[in-house]
């Protein structure tokens, strides 16, 4: 009897802990999921024409995102999405020199969503990138 | 910008739908229709008055290709060809169109009866050298796919009047130009026989299918 109540107590604690953990994680997870889905839609509209739906780029015209070192530098990634790029870059051993046009109409949250999608899909991230991060990244003057 | 792209897409969709309807009315199983404005002339043959139809025919042209050579209508003599309008710095529908056109290129690579002509609508920027690099980066070599530049007015004129494909400058859209995403199929008599939505998989499939039908017309 005593042992039983002890057990049920432990069980209850366990349940609460698990619940607590899940609710914590789930709000974070939910946000990540939302950013991922919206980011994916934005990616299709603004990026996939050139970089393609699978992020593999197109022949030697447009560079792939999959395998690119740039996606591990998210601040730079955010700046490139907003301001475009005109440098020659080497991605996965191939040289690309066509300029990428800027996207002046994308808002900070939209950029955060695109960065979230790209880094969660093809990078190492498992959670979303917050707007504040993008805001700070874009505040840094000087283009990439 | 989004709405402009949408309107372009919608426009090409509208064109393909209306074309599909036109095709559906005719003897679509046998022959592809001849598209474009036509005219009728009366003439007298053996004392009888007959009416002759004059179809929209692609006129003579002279443009410069990605190798710096002058290209005239002679290059498509006795060939069927697919044509489109694009520019190399286009960030919207052109990459999609080129991805689809590569499928046509791959499907008929080495076939002496088939050519592709892609006209630049931004010839000031798209010099032969720029087009050459673009073709190379796209993975295209040889003569079968011609990337053409030249007098802007001439390119726009042939595009609008004969290929029925609109293109114009518009500083409010990304890239600075709006143009149709159509692929236009032309037969050996220089008649337009089909127009397809070059921004979609389905449009390109239909084009490939119609190219087979058109080539079959000459196999008799």
Description:
The complex is a heterodimer of chains A (144) and B (220). In chain A, 57% of the residues lie in helices and 4% in strands. Chain A is mainly α and 144 residues long. Chain A has one domain (28-139): Orthogonal Bundle (Cytochrome Bc1 Complex, Chain D, domain 2). In chain A, helix 1 (2-46) crosses helix 4 (108-121), helix 3 (74-83) packs across helix 4 (108-121) and helix 3 (74-83) packs across helix 5 (131-139). The N and C termini of chain A lie far apart (69 Å). Chain B has 220 residues and is an alpha+beta fold. Chain B has helices at 2-25, 94-108, 128-138, 152-162, 201-217; strands at residues 39-45, 48-54, 62-64, 70-72, 80-86, 114-120, 145-148, 167-169, 177-179, 182-186, 192-197. In chain B, strand 3 and strand 4 (70-72) form a beta hairpin. In chain B, helix 2 runs parallel beside helix 5 (201-217). The longest helix of chain B is centred in the N-terminal third of the chain and has 24 residues, at 2-25. Chain B is globular, with a radius of gyration of 18 Å. The mean pLDDT of chain B is 88.
Rg estimate of chain B, integer Å: 18 Å
Q: Considering the protein shown, what is the CATH homologous superfamily of chain A?
A: Cytochrome c-like domain
Shape of chain B: globular
Name the structural class of chain B.
alpha+beta
Low-confidence segments of chain A, given as residue ranges, are none
Low-pLDDT residue intervals, each spanning 5 or more residues of chain B: none
**Structural class, judged by helices and strands of chain A?**
mainly alpha
Main sheet record of chain A: 2 strands, antiparallel
Averaged pLDDT of chain A: 88
How would you summarize the topology of this molecule?
The complex is a heterodimer of chains A (144) and B (220).
Chain A: H1 2-46, H2 48-51, H3 74-83, E1 89-91, E2 94-96, H4 108-121, H5 131-139
Antiparallel strand pairs in A: 1-2
Helix pairs in contact in A: 1-4, 3-4, 3-5, 4-5
Chain B: H1 2-25, E1 39-45, E2 48-54, E3 62-64, E4 70-72, E5 80-86, H2 94-108, E6 114-120, H3 128-138, E7 145-148, H4 152-162, E8 167-169, E9 177-179, E10 182-186, E11 192-197, H5 201-217
Parallel strand pairs in B: 5-6, 6-7
Antiparallel strand pairs in B: 1-2, 3-4, 5-10, 8-9, 10-11
């Amino acid at each position: 009897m005593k042992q039983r109540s002890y057990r049920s107590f432990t069980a209850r604690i366990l349940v609460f802990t698990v619940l607590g953990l899940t609710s914590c994680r789930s709000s974070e997870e939910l946000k990540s999921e939302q950013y991922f889905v919206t980011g994916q839609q934005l990616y299709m509209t603004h990026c996939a024409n050139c970089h393609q739906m699978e992020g593999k780029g197109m022949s030697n015209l447009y560079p792939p995102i999959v395998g690119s070192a740039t996606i591990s530098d998210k601040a730079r990634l955010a700046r490139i999405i907003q301001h475009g790029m005109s440098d020659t870059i080497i991605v996965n051993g191939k040289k690309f020199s066509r300029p990428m046009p800027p996207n002046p109409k994308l808002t900070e949250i939209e950029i955060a969503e695109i960065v979230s999608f790209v880094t969660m899909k093809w990078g190492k991230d498992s959670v979303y990138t917050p707007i504040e991060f993008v805001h700070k990244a874009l505040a840094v003057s000087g283009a990439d | 910008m989004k709405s402009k792209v949408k309107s372009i897409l919608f426009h090409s969709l509208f064109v393909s739908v209306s074309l599909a309807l036109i095709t559906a009315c005719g003897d679509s199983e046998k022959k592809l229709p001849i598209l474009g404005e036509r005219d009728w002339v009366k003439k007298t043959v053996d004392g009888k008055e007959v009416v002759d139809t004059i179809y929209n025919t692609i006129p003579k042209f002279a443009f410069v290709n990605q190798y710096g050579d002058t290209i005239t209508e002679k290059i498509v003599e006795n060939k069927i060809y697919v044509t489109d309008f694009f520019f190399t710095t286009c960030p919207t529908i052109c990459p999609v169109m080129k991805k689809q056109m590569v499928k046509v290129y791959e499907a008929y690579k080495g076939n002496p009866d088939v050519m592709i002509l892609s006209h630049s609508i931004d010839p000031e920027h798209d010099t032969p050298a720029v087009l050459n690099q673009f073709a190379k980066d796209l993975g295209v070599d040889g003569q079968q796919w011609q990337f053409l530049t030249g007098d802007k007015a001439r390119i726009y004129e042939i595009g609008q009047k004969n290929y029925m494909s609109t293109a114009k400058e518009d500083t409010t859209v990304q890239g600075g130009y709006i143009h149709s995403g159509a692929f236009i199929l032309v037969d050996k008599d220089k008649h337009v026989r089909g127009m397809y939505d070059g921004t979609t998989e389905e449009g390109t499939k239909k084009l490939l299918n119609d190219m087979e039908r058109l080539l079959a017309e000459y196999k008799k």
